[in-house]
Write a structure and sequence with these properties.
Blueprint lengths: L1 H18 L7 H31 L1 H5 L40 H4 L6 H6 L3 H8 L4 H5 L3 H8 L6 H6 L9 H32 L12 H20 L11 H20 L5 H29 L2 H11 L1 H22 L3
Pfam families: CLN3
Subcellular location: Endomembrane system
Protein name: CLN3 lysosomal/endosomal transmembrane protein, battenin
């Protein structure tokens, strides 16, 4: 009995040795991979937005300078500013800084050459290949298992059909149902982006204070910088503050638009520093609306619908920015004609 029990115990021990999973990497290695990924994705996000933010911040300078006369291919290193509309109290450029009004633009008229402006984006491949860690090397237990996984076919008919999160098999009826369920997130985000970009590209240039130590162009750049600072802070605040009802953020942003539009019309704010605070607040609302919208969608949609839901919600910011640009152009022309 004892010998039989001992042999059974040894057999079970040997079976356990054979079926034990491969050892996981040390905790220190997993933590290092986590921080590398965090830094990598942060830099990818920074590179992705850098050129766009620079162009918006420089829009006033770009539009206020002319290309040197004569050779149209030459970029004057210190161009002469174009005369502004002296008949208007807003010191307007001839064209609004709204996105449809900023022609590629016009980018060559300023000191920033397009090649220099977009060179920062060249860091994206560096971040992707050198910083991001393959999921296989973290989860599968070692380099050998990761190499085996990497050699598996990318397209497998059975795996594709059963893969959770894949939206390729959704019918039109299912997509329409998912889209209708997203409207309570899409509509507020469209309104948020419409209001904030109407402010940024339609009103920033018109919020001009003459009796300050900042020039008109410097005021515009400060507005853009404070807005982006607010967006950066609030997009990084999800772990500290989760907002479920994003429609409240849309309402507050629309109130911001109404308040600043009233100030452009009536000029009742006594100091530019009050505008600075409002614009920082505007950026906080915009960033919070964006990050909480996508976070809520990720939490509330099923695995099979999540990919389609996230991709569909991406139309919100583009739609809001486009609508604001179309309306900011005629508003700019109208206000600049006022005495």
């Amino acid at each position: 009995m004892g010998g039989c029990a001992g042999s059974q115990r040894r057999l079970s021990d040997s079976e356990g040795e054979e079926t034990d999973p491969a050892p996981r990497p040390p905790l220190q290695d997993r933590q290092g991979a986590h921080w590398k990924n965090a830094v990598g994705f942060w830099l990818l996000g920074l590179c992705n937005n850098f050129s766009y933010v620079v162009m918006l911040s420089a829009a006033h300078d770009i539009l206020s300078h002319q290309r040197a006369p004569g050779n149209q291919s030459h970029v004057d290193p210190d161009p002469t500013p174009t005369p502004h509309n002296s008949s208007s109290r807003f010191d307007c450029n001839s064209v609004s800084t709204a996105p449809p009004g900023s022609h590629q633009w016009d980018l060559c008229r300023w000191k920033l050459h397009p090649g220099r402006l977009f060179s920062f984006g060249g860091n994206q491949p560096v971040c992707y290949f050198l910083l991001l860690t393959s999921p296989g090397s973290q989860d599968l237990g070692g380099e050998e298992e990761a190499e085996i996984a990497a050699q598996q076919p990318l397209i497998n008919s059975q795996a594709t059909e059963l893969k959770p999160g894949s939206s390729s098999h959704l019918s039109l009826r299912e997509r329409w149902t998912v889209f209708k369920g997203l409207l309570h997130y899409i509509v507020p985000l469209v309104l948020v982006y419409f209001a904030e970009y109407f402010i940024n590209q339609g009103l920033f240039e018109l919020l001009f204070f003459r009796n300050t130590f900042l020039s008109h162009a410097q005021q515009y750049r400060w507005y853009q910088m404070l807005y982006q600072a607010g967006v950066f802070a609030s997009r990084s605040s999800l772990r500290c503050c989760h907002i479920r009802h994003t429609w409240a953020l849309a309402l507050l942003q629309c109130l911001n638009l109404a308040f600043l539009l009233a100030d452009v019309w009536l000029s009742f704010l006594p100091s530019i520093y009050l505008v600075f605070v409002i614009i920082l607040y505007e950026g906080l609302l915009g960033g919070a609306a964006y990050v909480n919208t996508f976070h809520n969608i990720a939490l509330e949609t099923s695995d099979e619908h999540r990919e389609f839901a996230m991709a569909t919600a991406c139309i919100s910011d583009t739609l809001g920015i486009s609508l604001s640009g179309l309306l900011a152009l005629p508003l700019h022309d109208f206000l600049c004609r006022l005495s």
